[in-house]
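Possible regression after last week's pipeline update?

I re-ran a chain I had predicted before the update to compare outputs. Posting the input and the new output here so someone can diff against the archived version. Not blocking, just want to make sure nothing changed silently.
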Amino acid sequence: MLRLFVAVNLDPSLRPKVEDLRRRLLEAWPQGARLVKWVEPQNLHLTLKFLGPVEASRASRVAEALRVVESAPPFDLHLVGLGAFPRPRGARVLWVGVGEGSEDLGRLARAVEDALEPLGFAREARPFSAHLTIGRLRTPAYHPELESALDRKSRVEIGSQRVHSVELVQSSLRPTGPVYTVVRSYRLAGEAGS
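New output (post-update):
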């Protein structure tokens, strides 16, 4: 079984800015160092769809079906804002939002859903929400300092990146954290190379 998801990887040039945001968040909320499992910089990505465990024999059909995204045009996305799911009071996931490019990312997510539903992958029950997960709280609870820090940093600017590919990624869970391996990369229409 392969644990798979479909994503747009964060441009490496933006990783230091996300790390700086995390550092500033921890200055405002020191308890976050032990209460949050932070996403490693090399693993930062914007998830289009989490597939979960997939039989190896079925993975090739998934990889082929995802070629549909290659017809989508490249676009720019802008990472802005800091928030939490389901809400700052009782947060489970800490995220950076997407401003410009969120509709394009949503179209890619719908194309992925459309391509994989015939293969038996259920559609997401919730509407797609474009975001970059930066951390997950180990035990969701109300943290007033976190809520205050999120409020102060709600309009933080991370920067922009060109989206020119979508990846099918395998996640291998290890005691030290997940290791992500790109199974297949899909170049968007008009982008040279593979």
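Follow-up from reviewer: compared with the archived run. The mean pLDDT is 93. Marking as no regression found.
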